[in-house]
Amino acid sequence: MNAVVFAGVVGPEVYFFIRFVIETGYKDVPNVDEYGTPLLCHTTPLHYLATHNILGRDPYVRKLFKIYDKFDVNYTDESGLTHFHVACIADCRDVVSNFLVLGQDCLNNCRWRKTGDSPLHLAVQYNRKEVAITLLRNGANPNLVNAMGSTPLHVICKGLRDDVHLAESLFEFSNDRYFPISVDTRDRNGDTPLHLALRSDEKKNLMKLLLRQGANPNSINFYSESTPLHILCNRSDDVEDLVVSFFETNDEVIDSLKSLLNIEHYENLGVQVNARDQLGNTPLHYVLDRGHIELVEFLLGKDADPNLANAKGLTPLHTICNNKFHTNFFLEYFLNTNERMRETVQVNAQDNEGNTPLHLALQCGYEEMAETLLGRGADPRLANSIGFTALHTICKDCNDRHALTEMLFKISKAKQQLVQVDARDNLGRTPLQWAVASFSIKTVEILFKHGADLSSFVFPTESHFYEALDIEMHINNFKTNLASSAMELVELLENKGYEMDRRDALTIMALFAKYGLFQKSADLEEFCWYDDEKSAERVYNAARMRVYYTYTCGCVRGRGRRSSCSRKLKGCVLCVDAAHVRSYNKCLARASSRGRGASAATTCSATRQRRGGVKCANKASVWDAPRTAVVVAAAEFSSV
Fold first, then answer.
1. Per-residue confidence at 325, pLDDT binned at 50, 70, 90?
2. How far apart are CA 213 and CA 257, in angstroms?
3. Where do the ANK repeat units fall (predicted)?
4. CB atoms within 10 A of CB 222
5. Could you tell me what percentage of the chain is helix, strand and coil, using 3-state DSSP and rounding each to the nearest 5?
6. Who contacts 218 (Cβ-Cβ below 8 Å, separation ≥6)?
7. From residue 219, how far is each of 200, 209, 270, 460, 529 by CA, in Å?
8. Backbone torsions φ then ψ of 609, nearest 5 degrees
9. The pTM is what?
10. Domains annotated on the chain, with CATH
11. What's the average model confidence in pLDDT over 348-376?
12. If pLDDT is split at 50, 70 and 90, which confidence band does 477 have?
């Protein structure tokens, strides 16, 4: 028998075999010690079936109890599981009754050592209602806890079903005659049964029962300090009906009790809608974070405070503006609902890092949200803990959110607010410096349009560029965009009157080197400064290395038609970088030998396309050679 079942062979054949053994009249005879006492530590097929998830297990268990019918002998396996436990699991009511009739001390002292479960725990876990009632009638304690600190009521509330009938039986047969249930007992995780009932799935009926049986609607988890309302509002599924029912049921309980309680106690029975958990979040924070828009007005109608900040200083408005899944509609709905209820929302509240909701909306690139906040009185001049104003925040973004910049100036002008275009952060950096460091060309143009001061402008350092570009370097076409943007940016700054110096050029060259825009500059030395077809062809081939767009660091400044021609340049290589000053000297020497002087050099700014290469057509002046590194552009040109 044992060999067949333990081998895991469970099917019709085994069932017929068990029935055959029963019909032969075979009964289990327990082994005894030298004093005739039965040896109870003995693993049987019943233990095996109970601890393995076998489909259709219960009929086998019932048949096996025809063989193991000595109910004064409660066999126990190595884990502490007894035959009485197995009977409770398999809903063998007659077997349970027989064990109890024979006076087995198996109600409260018989625990499954592995889990700490009592027979009542197992009965409710497997939804054995009649077995549970039998145990309760015979004195089972419903307040015993298992190894996880869970009572049978915890087990019911933790289950997958809304077992309200089982819970009702537990309360019904655990009255004063037996053991009244402690409805707010916390398990080892700090949860009460009400917490567990609300944590998962649809258990509205169970929730109502617990509240009517006196469960505290404001009980907190010892670890997270979450109340039942926090748990509901933090769920990701649709919980509107549950939240409304939670309040309605609690109000019913209060109405039935208020005549017996003094007014102070009565008021404390209400749901604390502004309670904070360990993170300082209120239920309203979670409703807004999870996007339960249908509950916003409901909680505000229950006196939820729209301005309470959590431990990080984040108000509900911060929560909306910092959530990547929210739209401007959500923000406007929140603001309009508060306005309708005559609640003032603090749009300029600052969190622990000094960020206002406007800062967060701009960091996320939410143009419509930012526009709404500005229209509601958000102050773009407020600086956070690192000195960033709203304008700093926009200009730091590598995505060149020029529309946001333009919108900020437009709304501020309409409200007659002065935007501090030259405000400095804690490191002394202006919005213009951040826009330059992030290569935001259009934003730079807008800043100049609105009066950015170029006279005090300091070209960003290498570390400033790295800080601004650190995130964007992983996107597609980053290198090509970087090179082309750098050329446009330098041209823009020069047109506005800024004079690039050698340090600025070396800064950008070092930036190019860091991001791999150079291949081997030294390899190009021999290609520089030749205008014959053969050399032009070699230059053209070299230009196909992994360097992408023309960048002259502001060194080449064409005039008239030459400038127009230079804009036709499609691609090039950088022949000399900061690490190859020797190449620069060679170029300078060649230029000098051609009569250009020690302080000037020439390079192509336009060419005519010919077979096999390019031909110089015009010349352009460059800066004083000793002041800066020379960058020689050589590549395929458009036809002129």
1. confident
2. 12
3. 115-147, 189-222, 279-311, 353-385, 427-455
4. 13
5. 45, 5, 50
6. 227, 228, 271, 272, 275
7. 17, 16, 12, 55, 82
8. -75, 135
9. 0.77
10. 1-106 (no CATH), 107-215 (1.25.40.20), 521-634 (no CATH)
11. 95
12. low
